[in-house]
Amino acid sequence: MQSIIEIKHLFYRYERDTVLEDINLDVPDGSFLAIVGPNGSGKSTLLKLILGLLKPQKGEIFLFGQEINKFKDWQKIGYVSQKANSFNTGFPATVFEVVASGLTKKLGLFKFFKKEHSKKVNEVLEAVGMKEFSSRNIGELSGGQQQRVFIARALVSEPSLLILDEPTVGVDAENVSSFYQMLGELNKSRDITLLLVTHDIGTISDKVSHVACLNKHLHFHGETAEFEQLSTTGLSKVYGHEVHVLAHHHEHGGVVK
Questions:
Q1: Summary mean pLDDT of the chain
Q2: Is residue 188 in some structural domain?
Q3: Residue 93 counted as domain residue
Q4: pLDDT at 249
Q5: Residue 31 lies in a domain
Q6: Which of 19, 84, 92, 242 is 20 to 30 A off residue 229, Cα-Cα?
Q7: Is the pLDDT of residue 241 over 70?
Q8: What is the pLDDT of residue 14?
Q9: CATH number of the domain where residue 210 is located
Q10: Is 200 contained in some domain?
Q11: Mean per-residue pLDDT for 187-205?
Q12: Are 181 and 214 in contact (CB under 8 A)?
């Protein structure tokens, strides 16, 4: 199986502080990887390195089998940041228009918008459960609904990899489970590789295929079933303090507290 992302012996530091040390990570095509870890563990830095916003100081990153410094096909990667939740709610655009703007890079700024493009926009809106809101102003939606729209915007250009940074910030607690259910369905139905940073490992443990526990070092990287066998002591080593795993209403899984 092809590796969408391959990281070898990656190091990164800010001045005197090493935030990533000897990271080795492989993300297979079609997988759904959750990266978990405490605040300040290097998760955001790792995403910036994968997205080419920072350059590795030591080590290698390969995207779709190509060294990152030679990689040009960034259209293959969709990204939804935490900042999507701080979107200007007064912005005068409909849900349809926001999602359609995701095609600008592919079509060019002044290319004519065709019927086939409208069909694509409607397809991704349906995939994230937001088609009925297509004519609604983006500012009228809840935080969780807006986040679904931004995911649709990232999906409309048909990336092979979708990266999400804390996607449930701003999502009501009662809607978090259905939100992750939607991501799990996207992973399977659209055959897209998903990578997300999250604190909601208990809620999402039955949706993801792989888990990576990061806290400067990569303390665990493997399939979800293996992660669920970690003891409280094992998790405490990752988080640097005592943690408790609380059972969820899912068939299996827990939440780190």
A1: 84
A2: yes
A3: no
A4: 41
A5: yes
A6: 19
A7: no
A8: 93
A9: 3.40.50.300
A10: yes
A11: 87
A12: no
Place of tokens 């003891």: 231
Q: Are 236 and 242 in contact (CB under 8 A)?
A: yes
The angle at the Cα of 189, spanning 134 to 104, to the nearest 5 degrees, equals 45
- For residue 204, name the pLDDT band (cuts at 50, 70, 90): confident
User: What distances in angstroms separate CA 239 from CA 4, 109, 132, 252, 256, one per listed residue?
Assistant: 27, 45, 41, 21, 9
What CA–CA distances, in Å, run from 146 to 24, 77, 121, 177? 34, 20, 15, 16
| Residue in the structure block whose two tokens are 């979107």 | 87
Nearest to 144 by CA among 80, 77, 237, 96: 80
Closest CA to 220 of 242, 204, 239: 239
Domain count for the chain: 1
pLDDT per residue over 143-195, tens digit each? 889 999 999 999 999 999 999 998 888 788 778 888 899 999 999 998 899 99
- Per-residue tokens: 189: 């139905």
Q: Which are the contacts of 70, defined by CB distance < 8 A and separation ≥ 6?
A: none
Q: Which two tokens stand for residue 57?
A: 């100081």
How is residue 51 written in tokens? 């997205």
Query: Which of these, 106, 189, 98, 103, lies nearest to 147 by C-alpha position?
Result: 98
Domain residues for the domain of 240 are 3-87+161-256
